[in-house]
Design a protein that fits this description.
The protein is of the alpha/beta class. Helix content is 31%, strand content 27%. Helix 1 crosses helix 7. It starts with a strand and ends with a strand. It binds shikimate-3-phosphate. Shikimate-3-phosphate binds next to helix 1 and helix 6.
Length: 436
Amino acid sequence: MHNMKILPARSLRGEIRLPGDKSISHRAAILSALAHGVTTISNFASSADCRSTVEVLRAVGITVKIDGSTVRVTGRGSKGFSSPKLPLDCGNSGTTMRLFAGMASGLGLGCKLIGDESLTGRPMQRIIEPLTNMGAEIASTDGHAPLLLAAGRKLTGTEYAIPVASAQIKSSILLAGLNAEGTTTVIEKVVTRDHTERMLRHFGVEVTETIGAEDRRITVAGGAALKAADMTIPADISAAAFFAVAASALAGSEISMPGVGLNPSRTAVLEVLRRCGARIEVIGRREAANEPVCDLVVSGKEDLKRTDPNFVIRGAMVANLIDEIPILAVLATQVDGGLEFRDALELRVKESDRIAAMVANLKLMGADVQEFTDGLRVGRSRLRGAAVASFGDHRIAMAFAVAGLLAKGETTIVGHECVDVSFPGFFQILESVVVR
Ligand code: S3P
């Protein structure tokens, strides 16, 4: 385990080139593999998680050529995949395991999916149940990895209401549905990120969406033929969030981040920043591969204050900013009145128990924090440097690196190397824009 020291910063200034969006990159690789022809993906995420997806696809017979951030995938349609003899290692990546399990089930591939200690502790029954309903046979240890998928099963389309707001469950089922008999409909009560639906359309697949008063229904037909379609992956808004919070909280800052994804199912983090009085400018809106993109400019302010004193982050908004709660909890320490996060029980089953991790680290740094089963409340606090643990969780490590910039004294992130899971080079880029 390695340590990273962080010193307080006066401001952040400069342009930041962010890695390609992690969620979109996973889907780009998987759907390219299921398409007919060669797809060139530019600005593919540099993250270890997306590398796990690439390696898993290679192991089932897909040719993937990597040249820097350009990835070329030779798709096989729905035939010609091979069942691997060795276990497929999904590493730390829940998205790899859940999405690939859906894809492999649809293709009738026999395989064993394994992951690291964190991933092995995360809930998989949520995909095992719907995939089993469709005809897959998946053995697990009490709903956890390793997952053993039986070969040669033929799936039938389903209609499934997902019990927890999760784009991973939705995507797993839709991917299975592409090669099932008949149609597959996923019903979600809370809207989750819709990158899979958008990218399926980019590959020429018809996706039907019905928005009702209480829910959203997404339908795909089995036997759909995907056509290879090049794309450029937008910069990752979840990575942008760390810099946006740091710049907002440090007066005199001005940073620009070109080409950031602005998918409405991911932008609640910007809304929260604005509702805390931050200065966020969205410039040059455009589309890339059926995803909205913009250049983001964030400037610092003397004083952050909530525009609505009763504002609580809860309900439908939570799924939209689930990955940004660690950094927003750090933002809360800088906002007059602080911030409260509720309805976020899912945070307890991410790469770490993020509620427990945030509470422990914020306390170590002297913050005023209260833990709830489904969230936390963080008051405005003067942070002091401390040695904090990453809990092996990339977003905790990066959030507390930002906390270190805002604190008095020196902060040490213990086990900082996990940032590679989503953002290799994070600390170097951060240092390159810090003014002391
Ligand atoms: C993701 C969806 C979210 C998110 C994860 C990536 C995706 O997980 O936390 O980092 O790419 O679909 P859930 O859908 O399980 O909430």
